[in-house]
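User: My instructor asked us to take a sequence, write out its structure as tokens, and then describe one feature of it. I'm not sure where to start. Here is the sequence I was given:
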Amino acid sequence: VMVLTSPLEEMGVLLELRGKGCRQFEAYLDGQKQTWYEFFRKCMKEKAVFKRVDLAVNDLVGMLDIPLLISKCRKEECVSVFRSFRAFRSGGLVSRQEQDSAHMGATLYIGSMQSDLYFCLYEKAYEQLVKNGTPLEQADIQNRFEIRLKNERAFYAIRDLLEHDNPERTAFQIINRYVRFVDRDDTKPRSDWRISEEWAWFIGEHRGSLKLTTKPEPYSFERTLHWL
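Assistant: Let's start with the prediction itself. The structure tokens for your sequence are:
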């Protein structure tokens, strides 16, 4: 948990919560008989700016096959508004503890890490094996799908959370709006390829979609000067 201040009053205060810091702050909120929703509403009332917000979907039973999704990206079976993806393996880190390093933890980034919205999918169980030595079969979380949002997109995600009080709805509508995995069918246009069974199982049926942007404003000298 970090609280950063500046001698310049107009700079305001920056609150940064990472990893365990979120859980610690959650315990504080619980002691005050409050939830994240009350906290976010206070932030909104203070006209806070959300510089970055991460939403995570924890896969407890192995619904996501991340190596398979990486393979689909390489075969152009990922339909997305994003133009790039990156995949990594961490076999070198855990091959000391596992016989088959070809099947070590995989991470998939969909979208540019410099953009205001991108996805990170990784095999959380392998991460815990590396960090804590927790055997794979004892891991509470098998995989994690993280939605990483910045600036305007973070604001609209928080606003949707406060309007509907349903983090599952918000998270899956964002995912459904920006990416889907399909099965190749060369008899049809790519836009008509059928959603893959594995992805449909994860995403669920009849999901809506949530667009996290407004109509872009034209750049102006004042806006550029303010950014500088």
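For the description part of your assignment, you could build on this observation: The chain has a mean pLDDT of 83. Try explaining in your own words what that tells you about the chain.
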